[in-house]
Amino acid sequence: MYFALASNYAESLYESDCNCQNALNVLAVASQDSSCKQLLYHPDSSKETILAFLCSLTQITDALGNFLHVLVEKKRLGLLPEIAEAYRQTNFSKKNIIPVTVKSAKSLKATDKKKVLNILEHVLDKNSIAQIHYSIDKSLLASLQIQYHHNVIDLSLKGQLDELKNQILGVEYE
């Protein structure tokens, strides 16, 4: 429920200001920080004091300032982390950016990264832009996994061993 509400706020803000992700991230972290919470959520804190504090944390555009005013008025500052995430997703969707996670057993060389790009060219829409995050997961044993949307391309030795084990045990997936 909260993410749906946060998504509505994020879409509304994105329509007014499509370049405030960094500021939102700073505000989201501050809204969860224990020392900041004392000011932001204290019943004696005035709305003006809260807004002045938030505006002192990062560069605030007019649209973001108005947006923060609404959140303070409606006592919805606790939604800032979800709003920041929904804003990121809205931004990605509007710009056709696909977040991709590539996990490998060891650090990938440039030639390996080029092979990943070739794979992505075949599985992603031609108009999409892959935003790739590389990470190391030694449990994969060898090779890599590519994750995008809700899909996983598992080229790892661990994945192959798991698949073999499931075949031997008679487990089938559709």
Please give a handful of descriptors for the protein shown.
alpha+beta
Task: Please provide a written account of the structure.
- The chain is an alpha+beta fold and 174 residues long.
- Helices cover 57% and strands 14% of the residues.
- The chain has eight helices and four strands.
- The chain has helices at 2-16, 21-32, 34-40, 47-57, 62-73, 80-95, 110-123, 157-169, and strands at 97-104, 129-136, 144-148, 151-154.
- A four-stranded mixed beta sheet has the order 2-1-3-4.
- Strand 3 and strand 4 (151-154) form a beta hairpin.
- The longest helix is centred in the middle third of the chain and has 16 residues, at 80-95.
- The chain is elongated and about 65 Å long.
Radius of gyration: 22 Å
Q: Could you say which structural class the secondary elements and strand pairing correspond to?
A: alpha+beta
Please provide the ordered H/E string of secondary-structure elements.
Answer: HHHHHHEHEEEH
Cα end-to-end separation? 31 Å
* Nearest-integer average pLDDT: 91
Biggest sheet, spatial arrangement of strands: 2-1-3-4
**Largest beta-sheet details:** 4 strands, mixed
Number of helices: 8
- The rough form would be described as elongated
| Percent helix | 55-70%
Low-confidence stretches: none
- What is the beta-strand fraction? 5-15%
- How many DSSP-defined strands? 4
